[in-house]
């Protein structure tokens, strides 16, 4: 029996294989290796750490807002500061945390779950991360220099347009969005191609783990939705920079065009956050009930149905505008319809738990919390899809309550995944006891913070107000909400403590601490650079639960170059082999070039030619084969390597 | 040729015999190309959607005191673009034949074609007879032509780099890549024809 | 108690939870329905969750069987049923609240950063009334408000009377409502519109027919030259200083539309779009330094000598 994980090596030839693979797939040591790496695990881990840091910063912004709003007529933050804080909070949480975090989990675990040694386009993947990082830094450089965007995370025109947002704040919004969407689109292409062509033999589509399915649907949604906001921000930037009139009614433009373009992206966006979360829930539920999730086919269909419907809902964000009533009621219907797949998922998880053997680990508690919090938010979602009701609560704190319930609903599975996958990422176990505290504080905190907001909204409190007069009587509920936020901060602080504790003296993690079903648990924790010693042959929907004694694996891949196996789309039959290029710094250069382009574009249209030229050089550097890799590839193609 | 493989078969699976140069959907890169076609395609869809949305706003199309676009050069360009696909078909054919010499020749021709189209695209802009900052109609027209223009320009840059590498450091991989660039070229043509109709004929009928 | 009432005098009610008009009423009962249904659904889910998690389990793991399938199927069917009812109720409410009324009183509201310009069109145009940040409506009479914006998007939201509608530059939206009992209702701007968004409110004052008509007549008059000398000096201060560049007081050379019309300023309950009560002290504070009261407001600070200020205040307070 051949080993799949280095930790189960018994045979001499396997030990030798381990060393050669380390040489081929490993990175050069030190900074060079850090810069040039194209290992999806290292890059995804970078994404994860970066996005988590921005989660903390976004949370810090939230803290500032809650402080300001904790009592009426508070003068801790003035409107100018507050408007930047809430805008940057929203942008951070959506563009720098929630979406990239989910995609990052996909970039790390999808290849492992389908038994691939890397993503389809390793260099492009590295490029994506650098672009993302530039975007993050741009936003916070602006914010810290008092040039943070201040027109809301959906940056409505004309407020964000040339006429009413002088200065560079809105341009920072536009370019941050551009950077993050570029990296998001790249991640999506990586995930699709990896899932389609790099699955281990035997993992036919109908055997893919539900998380992989969720990421696949998410990736497609990303590709069909993000170009809309990318184009919209291009329109906005050119209105501001070169005087086009896309949104200027005086010259035949239209302010509502922006809202249509934004929300045609914006609604799918929230499902790009939610659908991966459902994938996480499925892995967690099966992992901690020791049962495959009930109703696999309907679960897959539910995700696909959500993916489709998500593109037919955008107008429900515009009920208070002048869109015709009749049109609106159509969008009420579609919004209500999307409750059906969500319900199906909830019911199937409940059925799985019912028949399973719940293991009361921290991760599982987060699943329970997810169901309660998300269903609450989903139900308020259905309420506000009603036009007459929404005309009352639209742009009020009721909406703030709704979307925090659903978004933090998606945060529960993420925290669950943190406890579930931390051992795989770091080789260390997190403390369960701290985990319970983290969960308890978070669950209580979320409800104390956001439940009162429903009533604040109904009691007439509009969103995005930096203060309110005492006569409104909103003071007490706001104080309560702020108190809840303290609990949430506490819970996150516990998580941070747990991290540091685990990294310093946590127990070593075995390959598969949870005895879970999917392939990422078939290799060491953390996985070696080459992920799998031998690529396993998949024999069922739960690869590690349905392994025959024989444990067949793939042999015959080159051990001298990065040789990858390409399989057929539906049945994952071995079809061809593909040569992966060596690590390179080219992606970093290209990303810097792109950065220069878009950032100079904030100041002058000449950014286009200048940046274009720089970018061209970057591409040449990227495409040009070094003599070494050239020779290597020739030998590979002659079958000598 | 691996159709014989059966996942249930318990033997280890030796893949050393699999080919390393394949074309079309069998190849990894092809999917990447398709992915980016889809993304660029979506941005063009946004342009078209916005074009018709703005057209539906009150007022005539094009707005009064705005000339209709001229048809001369744009039509020459679109015809040339369509014709150039014959070249790319040849490129694709010789690539599949793994015929390096022929591929080098035809890639040179293709590169020449794509270089010619850059000034042609500039003439397309002038033919709009309106500035981007005159009114929303001008803005969306310039944007549409410009978006597709970026495809043309980046494609030209790629052709240049690729053809040079093809002459200096050719590998079998480049046959697949050449076939893909032909694939991409068909796509560029396919999307431009309707855009051309919309931008240059649209104002005459809408 | 009385203080609370006084507060209401200038700040006004603002809540969807105590309706004073037909539409707000319908939506309020819709809300009660929705929230009961939601509570039941949530309860069902949570109970099932707890049962599924904590129920006794036999040693032998029992597999999901046909009973599981029928249970899930029923739940889905239930979901669909609830949603259908929801759509029905929602549609009914929608119909009821959008029915356009006949013989409605027409008025125009134009949003500015960050205040509301109000006009009551009339024949002959000479009778048209222009005011700011406050509208008066007769109790029990349907009112149609035409909504426009001069700059960015604002949103008109008199929560106790009706849901909100956006004021979008380049478009004219319209909304109708009816106040069924006299009172002061607050309409907070609901669409984020920049620095002053939090302090952009409008008062809807619903009063009996007679007093409304009286108010309308008074608003038609232009300001008459004040009787007492102090106020007359105040008028000179007003006309001599920058005020005239932005404000109009009908019956004087001051005719600019950049800021609110001040012809009947003293008759209003609040200043700076519902930010502060209209008292002498607040008025003085506002004139001397608007930015402290409403950061970002498009009105500069004014350095006035105490006597000038005294006079100016006397004049402004004479504008009833
Ligand atoms: C993770 C993100 C997420 C998710 C999953 C959802 C899910 C839903 N959202 Fe939400 N939404 C947001 C994030 C999200 N939303 C954000 C960020 C905004 C604000 C943007 C901004 O303005 O800043 C927003 C705003 C928003 C609006 C606009 C409100 C306004 O601005 O006036 C509307 C209106 O229809 C809406 C509706 C819905 C609906 C119908 C669902 C449905 O998908 C919910 C379906 C789920 C359930 C219903 C629960 C599970 C089902 C069952 C247990 C079965 C039983 C159920 C029934 C019988 C009903 N959302
Ligand atoms: C995933 C998305 C997400 C998440 C997780 C959150 C989390 C939170 N949000 Fe956010 N929120 C949005 C998305 C999100 N929000 C969006 C899209 C908007 C709309 C913006 C707009 O209108 O444009 C919004 C708006 C918004 C508002 C309305 C602002 C307004 O309209 O005026 C408020 C007000 O209370 C708020 C509060 C909070 C709070 C208290 C949390 C808490 O859960 C945060 C918890 C705290 C932390 C996680 C930080 C922990 C920090 C530490 C432990 C200290 C250590 C830190 C460092 C060392 C750096 N949010
Ligand atoms: Cu006007 Cu908000
Ligand atoms: Cu939505």
Helices and strands in order:
The complex is a heterotrimer of chains A (641), B (206) and C (320).
Chain A (H helix, E strand, L loop, with lengths): L11 H14 L4 H7 L3 H30 L9 H35 L8 H23 L24 H29 L12 H32 L13 H35 L6 H14 L15 H13 L1 H17 L6 H23 L2 H7 L3 H30 L5 H27 L16 H31 L48 E2 L7 E5 L6 E6 L6 H16 L5 H17 L3 H11 L4
Antiparallel strand pairs in A: 2-3
Helix pairs in contact in A: 3-4, 3-5, 3-16, 4-5, 4-6, 4-7, 4-8, 5-6, 5-17, 6-7, 7-8, 7-9, 8-11, 8-12, 8-14, 9-11, 12-14, 12-15, 14-15, 15-16, 17-18
Chain B lengths: L12 E2 L13 H28 L16 H25 L3 H27 L9 H33 L4 H33 L1
Chain C lengths: L1 H10 L10 H33 L11 H33 L6 E8 L2 E6 L8 E4 L1 E5 L4 E7 L4 E3 L8 E3 L5 E5 L5 E6 L12 E7 L1 H12 L8 H12 L29 E2 L4 E2 L2 H9 L1 H4 L12 H13 L2
Parallel strand pairs in C: 1-5, 4-10
Antiparallel strand pairs in C: 1-2, 2-3, 5-8, 6-7, 9-10, 11-12
Helix pairs in contact in C: 2-3, 5-8
The structure holds heme-A (2 copies), dinuclear copper ion (CUA) and copper (II) ion (CU).
Account of the protein in words:
The complex is a heterotrimer of chains A (641), B (206) and C (320). Chain A has helices at 12-25, 30-36, 40-69, 79-113, 122-144, 169-197, 210-241, 255-289, 296-309, 325-337, 339-355, 362-384, 387-393, 397-426, 432-458, 475-505, 586-601, 607-623, 627-637; strands at 554-555, 563-567, 574-579. Chain A is an all-alpha fold and 641 residues long. In chain A, strands 2-3 form a two-stranded antiparallel sheet. Chain A is globular, with a radius of gyration of 25 Å. With 206 residues, chain B is mostly helical. Chain B is 71% helix and 1% strand. Chain B has helices at 28-55, 72-96, 100-126, 136-168, 173-205; one strand at residues 13-14. The longest helix of chain B is centred in the C-terminal third of the chain and has 33 residues, at 136-168. Mean pLDDT of chain B is 92; it is low at 1-5. Chain C has eight helices and twelve strands. Chain C starts with a helix and ends with a helix. The model of chain C is unreliable at 1-6 (pLDDT under 50). Chains in contact: A-B, A-C. Chains A and C meet through helix 4, helix 10, helix 11, helix 12 and helix 13 of A and helix 1, helix 2 and helix 3 of C. Copper (II) ion is lined by residues 267, 270, 313, 316-317 of chain A.
């Amino acid at each position: 029996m051949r080993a799949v994980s280095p930790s189960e090596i018994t045979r001499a030839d396997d030990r030798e294989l381990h060393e050669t693979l380390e040489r081929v797939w490993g990175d050069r040591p030190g900074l060079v290796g850090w810069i040039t790496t194209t290992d999806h695990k290292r890059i995804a881990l970078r994404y994860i750490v970066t996005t988590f840091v921005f989660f903390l910063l976004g949370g810090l912004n939230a803290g500032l807002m809650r402080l300001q709003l904790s009592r009426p007529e508070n003068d801790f933050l003035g409107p100018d500061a507050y408007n930047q804080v809430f805008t940057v909070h929203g942008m951070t949480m959506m563009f720098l945390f929630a979406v990239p975090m989910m995609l990052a989990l996909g970039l790390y675990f999808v290849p492992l779950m389908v038994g691939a040694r890397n993503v389809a386009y390793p260099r492009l993947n590295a490029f994506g991360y650098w672009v993302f990082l530039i975007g993050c830094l741009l936003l916070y450089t602006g914010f810290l220099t008092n040039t943070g965007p201040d027109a809301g995370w959906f940056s409505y025109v004309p407020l964000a347009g040339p006429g009413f947002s002088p200065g560079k704040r809105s341009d920072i919004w536009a370019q941050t969005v551009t950077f993050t969407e570029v990296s998001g689109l790249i991640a999506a292409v990586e995930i699709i191609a990896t899932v389609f062509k790099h699955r281990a033999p035997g993992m036919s589509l109908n055997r893919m783990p539900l998380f992989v399915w969720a990421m696949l649907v998410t990736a497609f949604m990303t590709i069909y939705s993000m170009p809309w906001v990318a184009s919209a921000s291009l329109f906005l930037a050119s209105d501001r920079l070169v005087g086009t009139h896309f949104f200027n009614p005086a010259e035949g433009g239209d302010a509502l065009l922006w809202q249509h373009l934004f929300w045609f992206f914006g609604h799918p966006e929230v499902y790009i956050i939610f659908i991966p979360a459902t994938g996480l829930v499925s892995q967690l539920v099966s992992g901690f009930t020791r049962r495959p999730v009930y109703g696999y086919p309907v679960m897959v269909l539910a995700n696909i149905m959500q993916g489709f419907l998500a593109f037919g809902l955008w107008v429900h964000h515009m009920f208070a505008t002048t869109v015709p009533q009749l049109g609106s009621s159509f969008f009420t219907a579609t919004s209500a319809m999307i409750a059906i797949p969500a319900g199906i998922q909830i019911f199937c998880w409940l059925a799985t738990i019912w028949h399973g053997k719940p293991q009361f680990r921290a991760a599982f508690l987060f699943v329970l919390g997810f169901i309660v919090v998300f269903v609450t938010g989903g139900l308020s979602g259905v309420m506000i899809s009603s036009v007459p009701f929404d005309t009352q609560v639209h742009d009020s704190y009721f909406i703030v309550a709704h979307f925090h319930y659903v978004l933090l609903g998606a945060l529960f599975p993420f925290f669950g995944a943190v406890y579930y996958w931390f051992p795989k990422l770091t080789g260390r176990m997190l403390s369960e006891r701290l985990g319970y505290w983290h969960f308890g504080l978070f669950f209580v905190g979320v409800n104390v913070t956001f439940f009162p907001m429903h009533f604040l909204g109904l009691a007439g409190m509009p969103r995005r107000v930096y203060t309110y007069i005492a006569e409104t009587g909103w003071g007490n509920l706001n104080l309560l909400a702020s108190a809840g936020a303290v609990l949430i901060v506490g819970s996150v602080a516990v998580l941070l403590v747990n991290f540091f504790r685990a990294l310093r003296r946590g127990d070593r993690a075995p390959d598969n601490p949870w005895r879970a079903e999917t392939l990422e648990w078939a290799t060491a924790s953390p996985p070696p650079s080459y992920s799998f010693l031998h690529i396993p042959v998949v024999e069922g929907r739960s690869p590690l639960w349905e392994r025959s004694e024989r444990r067949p694996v793939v042999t015959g891949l080159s051990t001298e170059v990065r040789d990858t196996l390409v399989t057929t789309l539906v049945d994952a039959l071995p079809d061809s082999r593909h040569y992966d290029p060596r690590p390179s710094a080219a992606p970093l250069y290209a990303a810097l070039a792109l950065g220069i382009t878009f950032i100079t574009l904030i100041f002058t249209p000449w950014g286009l030619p200048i940046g274009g030229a720089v970018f061209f050089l970057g591409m040449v550097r990227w495409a040009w084969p070094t003599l070494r890799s050239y020779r290597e590839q020739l030998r590979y193609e002659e079958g000598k390597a | 040729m691996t159709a014989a493989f059966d996942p249930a078969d318990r033997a280890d699976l030796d893949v050393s015999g699999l080919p390393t140069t394949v074309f079309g959907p069998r190849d990894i890169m092809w999917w990447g190309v398709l992915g980016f076609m889809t993304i660029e395609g979506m941005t063009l869809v946004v342009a078209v959607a916005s074009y018709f949305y703005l057209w539906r706003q009150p007022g005539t199309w094009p707005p009064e005191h705005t000339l209709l676009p001229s048809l001369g050069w744009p039509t020459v360009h679109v015809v040339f673009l369509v014709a150039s696909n014959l070249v790319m078909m040849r490129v694709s054919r010789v690539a599949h034949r793994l015929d390096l010499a022929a591929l080098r020749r035809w890639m040179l021709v293709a590169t020449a074609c794509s270089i010619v189209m850059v000034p042609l695209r500039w003439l397309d802009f002038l033919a709009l007879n309106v500035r981007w900052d005159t009114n929303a109609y001008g803005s969306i027209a310039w944007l549409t032509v410009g978006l597709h223009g970026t495809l043309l320009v980046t494609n030209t840059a790629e052709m240049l780099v690729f053809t040079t590498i093809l002459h200096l450091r050719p590998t079998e991989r480049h046959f697949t890549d050449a076939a893909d660039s032909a694939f991409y070229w068909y796509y560029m043509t396919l999307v431009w024809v309707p855009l051309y109709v919309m931008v240059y004929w649209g104002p005459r009928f809408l | 108690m009385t203080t609370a009432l006084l507060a209401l005098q200038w700040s006004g009610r603002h809540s969807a939870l105590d309706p004073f008009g037909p539409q707000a009423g319908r939506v309020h009962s819709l809300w009660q329905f929705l929230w009961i249904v939601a509570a039941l659904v949530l309860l069902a889910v949570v109970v099932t969750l707890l049962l599924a998690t904590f129920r006794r389990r036999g040693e032998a793991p029992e597999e999901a069987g046909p009973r599981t399938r029928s249970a899930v199927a029923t739940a889905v069917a239930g979901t669909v049923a609830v949603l259908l009812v929801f759509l029905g109720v929602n549609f009914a409410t929608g119909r009821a609240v959008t029915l356009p009324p006949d013989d409605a009183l027409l008025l125009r509201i134009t949003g500015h950063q960050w205040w509301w310009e109000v006009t009551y069109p009339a024949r002959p145009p000479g009778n048209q009334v222009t005011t700011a940040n406050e509208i008066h409506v007769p109790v029990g009479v349907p009112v149609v408000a035409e909504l426009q914006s001069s700059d960015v998007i604002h949103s008109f939201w008199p929560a106790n009377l009706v849901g909100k509608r956006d004021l979008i530059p380049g478009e004219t939206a319209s909304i109708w409502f009816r106040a069924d009992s006299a009172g002061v209702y607050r309409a907070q701007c609901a669409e984020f519109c920049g620095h002053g968004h939090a302090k952009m409110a409008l008062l809807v004052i619903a009063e009996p027919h007679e007093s409304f008509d009286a108010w309308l007549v008074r608003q038609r008059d232009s300001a008459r030259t004040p009787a007492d000398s102090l106020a007359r000096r105040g008028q000179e201060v007003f006309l001599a200083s920058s005020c005239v560049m932005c404000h109009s007081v009908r019956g004087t050379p001051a005719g600019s539309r950049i800021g609110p019309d001040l012809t009947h300023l003293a008759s209003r309950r609040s200043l700076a779009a519902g930010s502060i009560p209209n008292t002498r002290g607040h008025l003085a504070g506002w004139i001397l330094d608007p930015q402290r009261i409403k950061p970002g407001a498009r009105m500069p600070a004014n350095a006035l000598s105490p006597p000038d200020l005294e006079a100016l205040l006397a004049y402004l307070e004479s504008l009833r």
